[in-house]
Amino acid sequence: MTFSPELEAKFADLVTHYPEGRQRAALIPMLMFGQDEIGSVTQEMMEELGRRLELSTMQVDEVVGYYSMLHKKPMGKFHVQVCTNVACMLRGGAELYDHACHKLGLGHKEVSADGRISLEEVECIGACSWAPAIQVNYDFHHEVSTDQLDTILEGLEK
Amino acid sequence: MALVNVTINGVSVQAENGALLIEVAKQNGIEIPAFCYYEGMSLQAACRMCLVEVEKAPKLMAGCTLPVAEGMVVRTESEPVVKARKTTLEFLLSNHPLDCPVCDKGGECELQDMTFKYGVGESRFTEAKQHVPEKQWSPVVFYDAPRCILCYRCVRVCNEGMGVGALGVSNRGVYSEIIPSHGDHLECDECGSCIDICPVGSLTSGTYRYKTRPWEMEHVGTVCTHCSNGCKTTLGVRNNEIVRGNNRDRSGINGEFLCVKGRYAFDFNHHPERLQTPLIRNAAGELEEASWSRALKLVAEKFKALAGPKFGVIGSTRTTNEENFLLQKFARTTLGTANIDHHRSGDVVALVDSLSGKTGQLGTVEDIYTAKAVLVVATDLSQQHPLLANKVRANFRHHKAAVYAVTPGPVREDKIARKFIRAAEGESIAAVEQLREDLTKAGDLVILFGDSIQGDKVRQLVAFGESLGIPVKYVCLVDYANSRGAMDMGVLPDLGPGYHATAPGLNLQQMLEATDLAALWVVGANPLKGGKTLASKGAFVVVQDLFLTETAQRADVVLPAGSAYEKNGTVTNVCGQVQRIKKGIETVGSKADLAIIGLLARGMGVSLGAVDADTIFAEIAATVPGYGQLPMPIILTGGAAQTHPVNGRVPASTVPGNISSSRDTLFTTGSLTRYSKILNEVLEKPGALYS
Amino acid sequence: MKQFNEPSPLETRIISFRFGLENSASIDTYLAHDGYKALRKALEMTPDDVINEVKASNLRGRGGAGFPTGLKWSFVPRASEKPKYIVVNADESEPGTCKDRLLIQNDPHQLIEGVLLGAIAVGAKKGWIYIRGEYNYLIAIMDKAIAEAYKSGFLGKNICGSEFEFDLYTHTGAGAYECGEESALLESLEGKRGVPRIRPPFPAISGAFQAPTLLNNVETFCSVPAILRMGGAAYSDLGVPKSGGTRMVCMSGHVNKPGVYEVPLGFPMMKFVNEIGGGIWKGRQLKAIIPGGSSSPLLTAEECDIPMDYDSIAKAGSMLGSGGLMVMDETTDMVKLALRIMRFYQHESCGWCIPCREGTTWLKKMLQRVTDGHGQTRDIDLIGDLAANMLGRTFCPLGDAAAMPTIAIVKKYRNEFEAYVAKNPFAVSDLVSIS
What is the mean pLDDT of chain B? Predict the structure, then answer.
């Protein structure tokens, strides 16, 4: 399989960042960026990246299963991640997550029927001093009240 | 290596500086328990069972990764250590399902043993355990993730030990699971090493599951009857059925190694098509069941009448040395014929001749593991000689041996070779010459070569080896469990036992092509396999075998023979190492080939003396050059002893084209493995060589 | 880019002073504010002199472990057959911590300069900044700064016209707290599962790609330019003995002005909370503080009147750690806190070793059961006992990080656990243990 020309160019550059013969180091960045483009880590992608980096598909699978942000099952177009770890919990993160569950009618790692939105309860995303915080895909939103969450969700493109 | 003084539990011991504490303790009779530490494989320090107290260390240290140093003071049974072991086991058991009543491993489970020895008596865990369903990855391999203790032995044995790498680990934390090569199933050598190395019942065998408890079996240590490597296999026998084979007692030349054939393909032994009654061709031309007495009487009469130079004998590559020795003696003296041969798969004769005047240059299995360099010529070791391939790889892993491969196609050794050269068969010698410079620096060398190196090519290869100026040993690769023994015992048309010249007769090819053979006696062989025909349409053919093979279907009389698992005797492996096989089981109606020969002799009114394995072996030891000084205690206790064949010129008599390997694969051995259910069930196709 | 909190006049901004400047991330702004001066100075020094300056500064690792940085730098062997590397730990996943993010976002060139100083000190020629997957937006910012640095001759060959050369790249993680552990980070950098390595050998000897590697936290590297500019002794004097300089502390939780503030080591914790943080919100009372990220045991209000330096907090039974200071008022449910903390470690446990993978799971299940109202009296002691059985037994410090906070919470707030158990109608106070 091939990726978009931009991503192919990025990959071609990426493998030059590592010492000779150690191109396996490009695997996790390639999986992340590949997932950003394709939507999830597909079997095809695992086989393709394995081929390019001289790894068996199983070796790629070993890595994919370890990292929280790599998903074999596609998440929604907008993946809403609500942190409920300590600092966010202290500022209402658990209630915010509950609110999100009810508002979206989704549970942890569930995707809406139209594939547009998914929800995940996540661990600390590094916004503790501006809690409670969420991410929608990679975008941070800080000091999110339940009302603000509603606004954010409504504001997501249809 | 410098020695240091270490104190363990108050006792001062000496050890090599930098040796691992767990091994030093073991050498001094102190057990430090461990699941993930496994001799010969990479270190993990994952299970934390080996934590011990080391003076001046701020916390308990893992004994499996701690190198000893001068003055180190260690306590392995102090209160903190005992508590650590108890509680680590408690953690492990918190998720481990209480499957002991139904788990195959019960009774030989390391977790059970450890818990008895070091664990707590009460379970404080009252939560729900993690559970996922069991998975089947191949006809042979089942994986039960809840039972898995994540010691990663299976991953390492497959990757490091076997060089296959078909197992990995995915997910994270307590959800971690072993994963197979192809997502939901395995495509691998199906050797079962992962199952045997698993300390618990997480990986279980598809052929053994739920059949029995280990203490209900009788364990018989014998030698695998498939390829020529001579792996020891311990058969588990229950109610006269072989239920499993493994080598967990690590005896023999193979340690724990067994391939799929050694571990699982014993099941040909009780295939429903096993011959259990003699067959005689009746007037209508059909094979009809007959009694032993009637069949033996007929054959004895015919043999007596037809004895002489028109009598042909084709011996076996898997019958014992005793059977082979007796057969050729019977043929030459009683039947008065020199037409005796077997399916030759390697030119051992040329090798022995080339080494005339030299001693100690035939390599053993151990030599392959310890040599500083190994050269593999014109063979696919992983397919045909799995134990030897395993030893080469272990030598590379443990000692960084220099491995070289000269083969027509890619082989697994390429991955560990310093250099590999692709050379068509016939051009191997020229290619080997390219490695001269590398090899002269090697220190010492073992050369293994396949069947395309025969006749003069053997001499050229040996000349090459001898010109390197370093010690070189050679292994002439042959196919079957007693191929080497058949040669050593003189199942050859012009060489007697120990390679002394005899009056020549017809070789196997010539026997098949002759039009005037009066009789042909085929013992444990299938020369008419693959559509070959016997030109002598009128010959009286007698076949002794396990199954109604193509050759048996041409026979006038078929005598049901016992398998290697059903008799006592000795066999000689590819390296010339003799081992004892032990009877573990019996198939009613069949007789050992040795017994059949004795009965035929008696029927002909000839006395062969006592026809039993021990007596004949004594005769072999007394009369066959090379088998004379075998250390009997080693053989009798299940070890392997190397023979030292005649040291002198051997007349070459090979008819070109007479030596050829069957090119068996991991999943085939001659005719036997057709009848192995498990080999026929596995998904992997018997690989073409070099693929 | 907006920085996320108003600065406080009580801060001492040594590494965060460029935050809030117009285009603070650009090289022009950097150069206009002492940028790359330390680099030029270091190019005239010997590697040993650079290391000695860092030693004199008493800078200690800002990621969590607090290991003396100068000493760590001296571990990388001078001579090596293999090339030497720099790796920046920007995995920042310790709950309560959000400072490295700001340093990269607002002042990426400072990090570049810190890396270059490390490279000069140990003789490295290539380096990677390992950025946690969730901080994806920082990759573009960092890459842009790196490109600017190459263009201006601060990266690549002949840096500042000298013989010194260095190549720097960003590298993304994919969501794993354990990859903040330095050897697990290296495994992840190499494209594998983030499982820690057997140590020794340590990264200084066998690190990235099995070559000698200098690996430090973002903030640690960011502190070195200032050290070189003002001199190690002067930097050290900003703090207290054995804890030199200043550090970013991330205040979060029940305060009026949560935020990331840079203060000298030794700054009093209560002053930090009350005067910089504006005190406890909603007119409530302080109950407890977690001083250095969730891995550090909490301190009760009575225990918090201490200076914020490595040794003082260690003496109080906790850690300065990653500087993630989380403040809790009297409404905080300590049992739920214990549960949430254990859920985190259980989720992040890599699974390699038995005590951590099984221990965190067992503890999480127990704590869940207690908070669900099905706890037994014996559970309270069992929680403490199991946590103690993980301590010091695991392959990496994650096990300790899960165990120590749990032990502290059970010990200091046992009454709250008892209250939960009391609400269980099926609680049996005299469950007998057979042991």
Answer: 93
The span from the CA of B76 to the CA of B54, in Å, is 9
Which ranges of C15-91 does DSSP label H, i.e. alpha helix?
27-32, 37-43, 47-57, 69-74
Helices B79-95 & B110-118 angle (0-180, nearest 10)? 140
Q: Which of C177, C191, C337 sits opposite A123 (nearest CB)?
A: C177
DSSP H helical segments within B482-612, as ranges? 483-488, 508-513, 550-554, 593-603
Report the pLDDT averaged over residues B9-13: 96
CB spacing of A56 vs B165 below 8 angstroms: yes
Which of A43, A66, A68 lies nearest to residue B170, judging by beta carbons?
Answer: A66
Question: Do residues B126 and B62 both lie within one domain?
Answer: no
**In chain A, which residues touch C (CB < 8 A)?**
17-19, 22, 24-29, 31-32, 53, 62-63, 66-70, 84-87, 89-91, 123-131, 135, 138-140, 142
- Asked if A146 reaches chain B (Cβ–Cβ under 8 Å), the answer is no
CATH number at residue B439: 3.40.228.10
* Number of neighbours of residue B551 by Cβ within 10 angstroms: 22
Q: What is the pLDDT of residues C16-52, one digit of tens each?
A: 999 999 999 999 999 999 999 999 999 999 999 999 9
Give the tokens for residue B657: 């084209």
Q: Which fold has domain C334-422?
A: de novo design (two linked rop proteins) (1.20.1440)
- Chain B contact for C361 (CB, 8 A cutoff): yes
Cβ of A19 within 8 Å of Cβ of C350? The answer is no
Query: How close, in Å, is residue B132 to chain C by CA atoms?
Result: 16
Burial B342-351 (b: 16+ CB within 10 A, else e): bbbbbbbbbb
Instruction: Quote the minimal CA–CA distance from A29 to chain C in Å.
Output: 6
pLDDT at site B60: 97
Q: Which pLDDT tens digit goes with each residue over B636-686?
A: 888 888 887 766 777 766 555 588 888 888 888 778 888 998 888 887 776
CATH number of domain containing B528: 3.40.50.740
State the DSSP code for C276.
I
Residues B498 and B462 both lie in one domain: no
Clarify whether residues B122 and B260 are in a common domain: yes
Does C382 contact B128 at a Cβ distance shorter than 8 Å? no
Q: Sketch the domain layout of chain C as residue ranges.
A: 27-238, 246-329, 334-422
Query: What percentage of chain C reaches a pLDDT higher than 90?
Result: 96
Inter-chain contact A58–B181, Cβ cutoff 8 Å?
yes
Residue B333 resides in a domain? yes
Q: Are B219 and B471 in contact (CB under 8 A)?
A: no
CATH superfamily for C27-238 is NADH-ubiquinone oxidoreductase 51kDa subunit (3.40.50.11540)
Residue C1 has pLDDT above 50, yes or no: no
Cβ contact C361–B174 (<8 Å): yes
Q: Do C351 and B173 touch (CB under 8 A)?
A: yes
CATH number assigned to the domain comprising residue B38: 3.10.20.740
Burial class of residue B272, CB neighbours in 10 A (0-12, 13-18, 19+): exposed
User: Which domains does chain A carry?
Assistant: 5-64 (1.10.10), 78-155 (3.40.30.10)
**B192 lies in which domain range?**
117-270
Tens digit of pLDDT for each residue in C90-124? 999 999 999 999 999 999 999 999 999 999 999 99
| Confidence (pTM) | 0.93
Chain-chain contact of B183 with A43 (C-beta, under 8 angstroms)? yes
Residue B68 near residue B8 (C-beta atoms within 8 A): no
Domain count for chain B: 4
Contact (CB<8Å) B91/C360:
no
- What distance in Å separates residue B82's CA from the closest CA in chain C? 12
Sign, Cα dihedral of C338, C341, C347, C350: negative
Q: Are residues B296 and B370 in the same domain?
A: no
Chain C residues inside the 8 Å CB shell of A138: 134, 136-137
